[in-house]
Design a protein that fits this description.
Blueprint lengths: L15 H11 L6 E7 L2 E6 L2 E9 L2 H16 L8 E2 L8 E3 L2 E7 L4 E2 L5 H18 L16 H21 L5 H25 L3 H11 L2 E2 L8 E3 L5 E3 L6 E2 L2 H13 L8 H14 L4 H12 L2 H12 L6 H13 L1 H15 L4
Length: about 350
């Protein structure tokens, strides 16, 4: 039947049979398709009336519906820096095909931000603050959204226990690699840093802030990476991929973002620059005095050291030795800078450890 056909969409970069499959999905929408291109994990759909994005969500229907509902909620709050969901002819929001589901939005003609560019970083932290302000209050009785409120201390204790297990494992290794020896030589320092983070959280207003946040229904993006922040040619910023959203303290998102920026060689735990970012964020979503101690505790926890150990000793990730060593050396090179950062942060915000 298909022998005489070479394509459904003449300029498409996907094979013929998958084109037929995508066409079947797109037939559920009131659009006249001209071309389909696969770009990373999504499809760029060109039609006579515009450009769209078709996204496959696998078996994660609930996450997809949650994402769509949050987009729609944000738009009611006059936040249009997200994609706009497109409904099927039937009024459904998802198209089910085989074991997967798909949904359609408008195409955002923009590129990922560059975290080496200070302007992009500043604009991104402002976008995060605006997202937190506008997403606040989201509630949908048909969606059971995960909450991580009040769970950080328990999560950090689990990570601390794992670090202690890594230490025990290392003591039993007879023929240690260079990575093993270096990781072992530094593990006590980072276990102490993890404990410092946990104690600071316990002595902060973390739990009371969580109670306040629960009442206000604060939403965290939970995946605010450069891949999910887009910038167009007119300097407009957009936030995408809301499938991971959950209820939590906005500080959790902010701390993850700051930690990623501060870990970069360009900004290596530069307190003054970090403080500028905190100030920019706080202009949009006000950070109160009780939050600074929590923020410091979140920044102190030695994520990168812990994750390297987790990859090596728990997940047994098959990286080459030199890759492990290179990543570990980058963590160790930041010790002095991070210690100075902690000292400066404590003094500036008058935090007692």
């Amino acid at each position: 039947m298909f022998e005489s056909l070479k394509h459904v969409y003449s300029k498409s970069n996907i094979p013929f049979l998958p084109q037929l499959y995508i066409k079947k999905i797109l037939d559920n929408y009131n659009i006249e398709v001209i071309d389909v291109q696969r770009i990373r994990s999504v499809y760029k759909i060109k039609s006579k009336d515009g450009v769209y994005c078709l996204k496959k969500v696998g078996s994660s229907e609930k996450k997809a519906i949650k994402s769509i509902r949050i987009m729609e909620y944000l738009m009611t709050k006059n936040f249009h820096k997200v994609a706009k969901p497109i409904y099927c002819i039937t009024g459904e929001i998802l198209v089910k095909a085989d074991d997967s589901s798909y949904y359609l939005t408008n195409w955002i003609d923009a590129e990922e931000v560059d975290f080496e560019n200070p302007n992009h970083v500043t604009d991104s932290v402002q976008l995060l603050a605006e997202f937190h302000e506008k997403a606040k209050g989201f509630n949908d009785n048909d969606i059971k959204m995960k909450s991580n409120l009040g769970k950080v201390i328990k999560m950090y204790n689990r990570k601390l226990q794992l670090m202690s297990k890594f230490k025990d494992q290392l003591a039993k290794i007879q023929n240690k690699s260079i990575f093993d020896i270096t990781y072992q030589d530094n593990i006590n320092y980072y276990i102490a840093q993890a404990r410092q983070s946990i104690e600071l959280l316990k002595n902060s207003e973390y739990l009371s802030l969580c109670e306040e946040s629960k009442k206000e229904k604060h939403v965290c993006h939970n995946s605010f990476y450069y891949q999910n922040i887009l910038k167009d040619n007119n300097n407009n910023y957009f936030i995408v991929d809301l499938e991971s959203c959950l209820y939590d303290l906005p500080l959790i998102d902010l701390a993850k973002f700051l930690r990623r920026i501060m870990s970069r060689e360009s900004f290596l735990w530069d307190f003054n620059y970090c403080n500028e970012l905190i100030t920019e964020y706080s202009r949009i979503r006000k950070i109160n005095d009780k939050e600074y101690k929590v923020l410091l505790a979140l920044l102190i926890f030695p994520y990168k050291f812990y994750r390297l150990g987790r990859k090596k000793y728990l997940k047994k990730k098959k990286w080459k030795e030199d890759r492990y060593i290179r990543k570990l050396n980058r963590v160790l090179e930041s010790i002095v800078y991070k210690n100075t950062f902690i000292k400066d942060f404590k003094e500036y915000y008058d935090i007692k450890l």
